[in-house]
Design brief:
By secondary structure, the chain is an alpha/beta fold. It folds into three domains: about 5-245, Ribonuclease Z/Hydroxyacylglutathione hydrolase-like (Metallo-beta-lactamase, Chain A), CATH 3.60.15.10; about 250-395, Rossmann fold (3-Layer(aba) Sandwich), CATH 3.40.50; about 435-490, Rubrerythrin, domain 2. Helix content is about 30%, strand content about 20%. It contains 14 helices and 26 strands. The protein has helices at about 55-65, 80-85, 90, 105-115, 185-200, 205-215, 235-245, 265-280, 295-305, 320-335, 350-360, 380-395, 410-415, 425-430, and strands at about 5, 10, 15, 20, 25-30, 35, 40, 45-50, 75, 100-105, 120-125, 130-135, 135-140, 150-155, 160-165, 220-225, 230, 255-260, 285-290, 305-310, 340-345, 365, 370-375, 435-440, 445, 485. The strands form six sheets. It has a seven-stranded mixed sheet with strand order 1-2-7-8-9-10-11. Strands 12-13-14-15-16-17 form a six-stranded mixed sheet, with no helix packed on it. A hairpin with a 5-residue loop joins strand 24 and strand 25 (about 445). Mean pLDDT is about 90; it is low at about 405-435. The structure holds MU-OXO-diiron.
Length: about 500
């Protein structure tokens, strides 16, 4: 089966309605997904990407019904992960000498997965092009870490189609292929879920890459992703949406999540939420029990929020394990520009709340005061929880809030031991300070000015501002644009 995309481009991919897990069980694909592969028949016949390995046989069978496989001139692999390059072994067994165009990193990944170093690889870099006849070319754009170090996009001149692979995609299955044909609410929900759960850590790179691509001033009539829809109606909408999401995104929204042994922490969550809503009815407030709700939905809500409240009962003097797991994920997603605080019920020591506060601070949140309640909250404790919610609502308000007269007394009665993280200094200020390092926000490698980077002829004691713009992170190979100021070792 094929679907006509544009002129001589056809979709030859695979829908997967029933898949429910991705990346092991870390990402729940509640709406299924698709693996989009494209066949271009111009002067040359070109296959862009394949499908997931579990559909290898069906994919090659379907493709052979559409085109004589031996007449495929080039295979382009934008990304080596098994959901896109998975059918290569089955395909290349039929056309073993066909040139494969991919990044240098992808040769390593593809060989590591398929164990065929003899395949006819042609490594490409950003700006390289391939003539496919009829006056059209494929232009390659490396996009490392979107989603793997080997990722790239392929732009087809003439038809102005950007084959973007993972970027701008969604885990979303529909019999329709184009963005204007599907339920818009479902579509954008899945786009945001995908971004929040997969791409958030790479937001600085998303911004830099999109600006780089826009800098080419190429017309884009379609964005042909490798998961979900092809964007043909206003295709730049998803590019602009990515720019918005990558820019420390937040809405006027607060998310509470917790785990609760005896319902006591749940009672606290409800009362805190009531207090928030009472003072600021305009803020969206959502509550989730991590034991009962979809993890990826909670992480998406965190992504959307200006602040989060994380609760746990104290168990063996630590937090409950599912809360710890969520905090580990949140740390890895490297959210920025968000507030947070801990809460929870305890019986003896209340160690969970202290540990959550520390973990939130380590994860880069601006920390507000925590709240503990001993045993089951009674009427007085619940009143304190509601007052805590009112305080949070005022402190986290995006605009000044009117303080109702009836709340004034309470507002001053509760301790507000707020701890705000030290603001990050500006890049310019740091760049001139030779005592500070620069952190690669993609792979966490740190540039230490005292050491320089001898492999790139950057001498010791070279401040960041003097490091050449051609500098590439030794850890992940990405440029200066993804670095942020940080401290180095014990120096300040
Ligand atoms: Fe859709 Fe990174 O694979």
């Amino acid at each position: 089966m094929t679907i006509h995309v544009k002129n001589n481009i056809h979709w030859v991919g695979q829908r997967d309605w029933e898949v429910r897990d991705f990346h092991g069980t870390e990402y729940k694909t509640l709406k299924g997904t698709s693996y989009n592969s494209y066949l271009i028949r111009e002067g040359k016949n070109v296959l862009i990407d394949t499908v997931d390995h579990k559909f290898s046989r069906e994919f090659v069978q379907n493709l052979a019904a559409v085109i004589d496989l031996a007449s495929i001139d080039y295979v382009v692999i934008n990304h080596a992960e098994e959901d896109h390059a998975g059918a290569l072994s089955e395909l290349m067994a039929r056309i073993p000498g066909t040139p494969i165009y991919c990044t240098h990193n992808a040769i390593d990944s593809i060989t590591g997965h398929h164990h065929h170093p003899e395949w006819n690889f042609h490594p490409v870099k950003t700006g390289d092009s391939l003539d496919i006849g009829n006056g059209k070319q494929l232009v390659f754009i490396e996009t490392p870490m979107l989603h793997w170090p080997d990722s790239m996009m392929t732009y087809m001149t003439g038809d102005a189609v950007l084959f973007s692979n993972d970027a701008f995609g969604q885990h979303y299955c529909d019999e329709h292929l184009f963005n204007d044909e599907v339920d818009q609410t479902e579509l954008m929900e899945q786009c945001q879920r995908y971004y929040a759960n997969i791409l958030t850590p790479f937001s600085p790179l998303v911004t830099a890459k999109i600006k780089e691509v826009l800098g080419f001033n190429l017309p884009v009539s379609m964005v042909a992703t490798s998961h979900g829809v092809v964007w043909r109606d206003d295709p730049t909408q998803i590019i602009l949406k990515y720019l918005e999401w990558a820019d420390q995104y937040q809405e006027d929204r607060i998310t509470l999540f917790y785990d609760s042994m005896s319902n006591n922490t749940r009672m606290m969550a409800d009362a805190i939420a009531q207090g928030i809503h009472e003072v600021d009815p305009s803020v969206a407030v959502k509550i989730y029990n991590v034991s009962r709700h979809d993890k990826n939905e909670i992480l998406t809500q965190v992504f959307r929020s200006k602040g989060i409240l994380v609760g746990s009962s104290t168990m063996n003097n630590v937090m409950m394990p599912k809360v710890a797991g969520m905090l580990e994920e949140i740390t890895g997603l490297r959210f920025r520009n968000k507030r947070a605080a801990a809460f929870g019920s305890y019986g003896w020591t209340g160690g969970a709340v202290d540990r959550i506060q520390t973990r939130l601070m380590d994860a880069g949140f601006d920390i507000s005061f925590p709240l503990k309640t001993k045993w089951r909250p009674d009427g007085s404790a619940l009143a304190e929880c509601r007052e805590h919610g009112r305080q949070i609502a005022r402190q986290w308000a995006l605009q000044p809030l009117a303080v109702p007269r009836s709340n004034t007394t309470h507002a001053t009665a509760v301790t507000t031991a707020t701890v705000i993280a030290t603001p990050i200094a500006t890049n310019d200020a740091i760049a001139m300070n030779n005592d500070r390092g620069m952190l690669c926000t993609v792979c966490q490698w740190i540039y230490d000015p005292a050491l320089g980077e001898p492999d790139q002829l950057v001498a010791p004691e070279t401040p960041w501002a003097a490091v050449p713009e051609s500098f590439l992170c030794p850890g992940c190979g990405i440029g200066k644009e993804v670095f942020e100021p940080c401290t180095v070792g014990n120096r300040k």
